[in-house]
């Protein structure tokens, strides 16, 4: 039994651990479809579609962020091949899914180390979940 | 190895304006009093201070007609020149060739003015002055700091830091005084090479041109060092930087000397200089090199190499 903290976190992409990751987050939702009927005293719901999205920050250190940045910051159009198999790890647990990189933000400021802020949208169902 | 004492410390200051700020105005014929060699123009109160070395030039390329031909180092009429100023209590200006004459407002050595018939548009800039030792200093401190940004990444157990910006700040304390007196004999320094603490009070309040100055903080000065050899006599270690006066405090208390505390922040590069080789003064040899004393422009001995 132990707590999990940032030192236990990883992002694995294409089977390779991504370097210089500062943080990641994942947000998952299940839609609640209302099925409340007349004469019901309380609202009722049935599960709808699942969805998930997330973000991560990567320090700009050599080519650490290049592989993910190049999915968005590019000169040609993205295609089906740009869906990534990504695993967000935390200790011995992990969540694996296919996703599209949907946003990349680069910002430079005096006195700060440059980071790439990336956001992604999970495509389809999760491939594997170990919680 | 030696234990060094604070007595070797010293502060040198150069009057200047950071970012080369200038002020423009117009001198009208009625602004000039030729009997008292005094003139003025519409500059804000507190912008110029007695002892400042100012560069005055015309904005239209004409000559500075209100300066008498004898008021130039080389008699004539020129469009620009550099002088020391004495600022009286109502904002009148007198020009001088020497700093100590300007500080004392001497009547005999002021630059002679002459009447003009048309307005003269001018631009005034406080130029880099020579370094002067700040008098009456009792202590000073300089803190240099380097910001560190946390770049720890996931999976690491120890924090990683990346160094970023350097900054500096400090303060000095002095016994308050406003002029050097005839009987003063501080380190055999002549009057023209001492800056009084009141200048830093004035600098904080200087309008238009800001409160910038150039400083040299000597940590190890020339002289015999404890436990050192004779050839270490010339060793020097000092900081150099541009700074802004940010706070001046003065306290009055019965039975205590009046002390003033000046706080500053550095701007731009901070340089830590060391000199550990012996300085030799070039012997005067005709045709090869010579020592020259320039009173007006720089005021120090300058080595001039002949090609």
Write a brief caption for the model.
The complex is a heterodimer of chains A (131) and B (307). Chain A is mostly beta strands.
Written overview of the protein:
The complex is a heterodimer of chains A (131) and B (307). Chain A has 131 residues and is mostly beta strands. Helix content of chain A is 3%, strand content 56%. Chain A has one helix at 66-69; strands at residues 9-13, 16-17, 21-34, 45-59, 84-90, 93-107, 115-130. The model of chain A has no long low-confidence stretch (mean pLDDT 93). With 307 residues, chain B is mainly beta. An eight-stranded mixed β-sheet of chain B has the order 10-11-15-14-13-1-9-12. Chain B has a five-stranded antiparallel β-sheet with strand order 2-8-5-6-7. Chain B has a two-stranded antiparallel ribbon with strand order 3-4. In chain B, a hairpin with a 5-residue loop joins strand 6 and strand 7 (93-96). The longest helix of chain B is centred in the middle third of the chain and has 7 residues, at 198-204. The model of chain B has no long low-confidence stretch (mean pLDDT 83). Chains A and B meet through strand 1 and strand 3 of A and strand 11 of B.
Please give the structural blueprint.
The complex is a heterodimer of chains A (131) and B (307).
Chain A (H helix, E strand, L loop, with lengths): L8 E5 L2 E2 L3 E14 L10 E15 L6 H4 L14 E7 L2 E15 L7 E16 L1
Antiparallel strand pairs in A: 1-2, 1-5, 3-4, 4-7, 5-6, 6-7
Chain B lengths: L9 E6 L7 E5 L4 E2 L4 E2 L13 E6 L21 E8 L5 E4 L2 H6 L15 E7 L4 E4 L2 E14 L10 E15 L18 E2 L2 H7 L7 E9 L15 E16 L7 E17 L13 E5 L7 E5 L2
Parallel strand pairs in B: 9-12
Antiparallel strand pairs in B: 1-9, 1-13, 2-8, 3-4, 5-6, 5-8, 6-7, 10-11, 11-15, 13-14, 14-15, 16-17
Provide tags for this entry.
heterodimer; A: mainly beta; 7-stranded antiparallel beta sheet; 1 helix; 56% strand; B: 307 residues; mainly beta; 8-stranded mixed beta sheet; 5-stranded antiparallel beta sheet; 2 helices; 4% helix; 41% strand; globular
